[in-house]
């Protein structure tokens, strides 16, 4: 049917009031760029499995010493935009049923287009995931990507990495999902925090509310294929340093290969010569979030 100019004008007006594309699960360009020239310009030195596995050129002298004003403590000003902290950041204690959880929230408390939750590792708390200047400014980028695209980012303080910690995050997932009106929730976990991610994969009620997951420098779950998350075929992206002395990259690579061969939606980014903290510094959040929101087959 031929559309008149009036029809097109009406459609354009309707589109202007629709939610962001991330809410409808569209396209790899769902999130608008934020400092991509500084964070996304990474050199792929090896790739296989149709590009699902990529090895990235990582160099400590360039990616830490060349990027930080004070090594590992304060990134150079060009890498951050701190206005988001004053406009949209709030420390709060959420009452979640019979639980209470300390979080830093960036973005709206309700009606968000999507939610990202980051779980820190041992010795961390909500301050780690909301610090603008450490880890090369990568959390500041995550905060801005969420806020600038109508989303909400939560950095909770996880008191333990056992069933109690899993229950706390399950409650946060449920809360975020309800507050947004059923929009996508993405769970991301670093280091020992990955115990929480793997625990959540076994919770069928949480899995119903999740869009996908990212594991940074995490442990491997040999029973992942028995989980509700696996059965739902939700996407998972791994990032790891090749010289991680805490959790061996080879273990996660083995799990990735098993998933990939089963045609499971998965990606793996390996940072050549990278250490345990490298993925928290170097993970390209825009690439990871866009793919989880709309995973492309290999």
Quickly describe the structure:
This protein has 13 helices and twelve strands. With 298 residues, the chain is α/β, with parallel strands linked by helices.
Structure description:
The protein is of the alpha/beta class. Helices cover 36% and strands 22% of the residues. It contains 13 helices and 12 strands. It has helices at 5-16, 21-24, 36-39, 60-65, 83-88, 138-148, 163-180, 194-201, 204-209, 228-232, 249-261, 278-282, 285-293; strands spanning 44-48, 53-57, 68-70, 74-75, 89-96, 99-106, 115-119, 152-156, 185-190, 212-216, 236-241, 266-272. Strands 1-2-12-11-10-9-7-8-6-5 form a 10-stranded mixed sheet, sandwiched between helices. A hairpin with a 4-residue loop joins strand 1 (44-48) and strand 2 (53-57). The radius of gyration is 19 Å and the shape is globular. The two termini are 36 Å apart. Residues 1-28 have low confidence and may be disordered.
For the biggest sheet, the summary is: 10 strands, mixed
The amount of beta strand, in percent, is 15-25%
Rounded radius of gyration (Å): 19 Å
User: Oligomerization state of this entry?
Assistant: single chain
- Whole-number average pLDDT? 92
Order of helices and strands: HHHEEHEEHEEEHEHEHHEHEHEHH
Percent helix range: 25-40%
**End-to-end separation:** 36 Å
Low-confidence stretches: 1-28
In terms of structural class, how would the helical and strand content be classed? alpha/beta
């Amino acid at each position: 049917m031929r559309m008149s100019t009036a029809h097109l004008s009406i459609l354009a007006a309707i589109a202007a009031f629709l939610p962001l594309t991330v809410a409808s699960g569209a396209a790899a360009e769902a999130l608008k760029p934020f400092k991509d020239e500084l964070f996304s310009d990474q050199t792929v030195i090896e790739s296989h499995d149709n590009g699902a596995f990529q090895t990235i050129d990582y160099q400590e002298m360039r990616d830490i010493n060349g990027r930080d004003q004070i090594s590992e403590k304060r990134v150079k000003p060009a890498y951050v935009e701190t206005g988001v902290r004053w406009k949209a950041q709030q420390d709060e204690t959420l009452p979640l049923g019979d639980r209470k959880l300390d979080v830093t929230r960036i973005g709206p408390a309700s009606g968000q287009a999507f939610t990202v939750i980051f779980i820190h590792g041992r010795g961390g708390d909500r301050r780690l995931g909301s610090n603008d200047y450490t880890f090369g400014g990568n959390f500041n980028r995550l905060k801005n990507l969420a806020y600038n695209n109508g989303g909400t980012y939560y950095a909770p303080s996880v008191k333990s990495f056992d069933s109690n910690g899993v229950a706390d995050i399950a409650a946060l997932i449920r809360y975020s999902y309800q507050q947004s009106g059923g929009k996508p929730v993405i769970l991301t976990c670093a280091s020992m925090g990955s115990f929480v991610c793997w625990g959540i994969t076994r919770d069928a009620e949480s899995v119903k509310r999740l869009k996908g997951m990212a594991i940074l420098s995490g442990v491997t779950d040999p029973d992942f294929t028995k989980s509700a998350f696996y059965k739902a075929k939700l996407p998972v992206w791994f990032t790891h340093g090749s010289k991680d002395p805490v959790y061996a990259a080879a273990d996660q690579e083995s799990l990735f290969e098993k998933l990939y061969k089963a045609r499971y939606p998965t990606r793996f980014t390996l940072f050549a010569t990278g250490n345990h903290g490298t993925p928290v510094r170097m993970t390209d959040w825009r690439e990871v979030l866009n793919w989880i929101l709309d995973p492309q087959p290999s």
